[in-house]
Amino acid sequence: MTKKYGRRGKLALSDVHLSVPAGRVIGLVGPNGAGKSTLLHLACGLTEPTSGSLSVLGSRPAANASHLARVGFVAQNTSVYGAFTVAEHLKFGARMNPGWDPVLAERRIGQVGLSAGQKAGQLSGGQRAQLALTIAAAKRPELLIFDEPAAALDPLARRGFLQNLMEFVLELGAGAVLSSHLLGDVEQVCDYLIVLCDARVQVAGDTRELLAGHARLVAARGEFDQPRAGIDVISVEHSGKHSSAVVRTGAATEALPYRSEPVTLEELVLAYMTRAAAVPAARTEAAAWGATR
Ligand SMILES: Nc1ncnc2c1ncn2[C@@H]1O[C@H](COP(=O)(O)OP(=O)(O)OP(=O)(O)O)[C@@H](O)[C@H]1O
């Protein structure tokens, strides 16, 4: 699948083949302009691919009213209507969504300390994010999509927001996709990772499997400068007499006489981002967006 904005526009997504399991909490990470919002907008039907296709929960995004009701989306700027009160937002949500759960909506509004009469325009960024999350969840969707949901929040509010998000996911039995620059947040809540750089998917998979399938090898300086058969070096750093490389592990790497250390999620993501920055259009993971449910 590809996505280009306008005839002469740059490719925002290039050759994305991604298949994502349903019911997971997926972290979508990548640098500014990587194509994260574009991918999320495609997934909820706000825009269409230029070529290829995608399927979410078994059909074309926003295919009809019932499909729209199955997906909840919270945009990057957590759009709420400034002149509407919290209660009016809930009323509007109830009118627009056949599966609206008024009990869930009112309970969560109380839990996060919002009151019915407050105007959304007078809420803080964190409170607006909580209101947007509540509205998305009260639809009782099967998939919640968030574009940088916690970016504007302070660390405490962010933790509360992410806890709420996880509670919703559990309570609804829903899957979720969230884009974020905050790798700590992704590590806290996501069990599946997609790294998108320069319009291409660099790597995607179960977070634990990805961490288990990569390692940092430490050797004498320059040891990783030449490519070696069977060893997939993602990125290399040099310090003093040593070089350390983040590699995909396998039979060939196990046989090497180098010190091997586990990688953190941050190291893994940075390694792929570094490789993509160094080699534009770096090798991509075979992958088709489509939750199978
Ligand atoms: N409406 C648009 N018209 C033209 N180009 C666009 C439009 N929206 C996005 N783009 C371009 O598509 C590319 C991907 O943008 P996108 O917003 O998807 O990236 P992102 O990864 O979400 O970035 P960020 O982390 O900064 O939010 C960028 O080069 C951007 O300039």
From TrEMBL:
Annotated Gene3D superfamilies: P-loop containing nucleotide triphosphate hydrolases (3.40.50.300)
All copies of domain ABC transporter, residue ranges: 2-223
Molecular-function GO terms, alphabetical: ATP binding; ATP hydrolysis activity
SMART domains, per the entry: AAA
Top-level lineage group: Bacteria
Keyword terms: ATP-binding, Nucleotide-binding, Transport
Pfam families from the UniProt entry: ABC_tran (PF00005)
Keyword Nucleotide-binding on entry: yes
Transmembrane feature ranges: none
Keyword Repressor found: no
Xref: SUPFAM superfamilies: P-loop containing nucleoside triphosphate hydrolases
PROSITE patterns the UniProt entry points to: ABC_TRANSPORTER_2
Protein name per UniProt: ABC transporter, ATP-binding protein
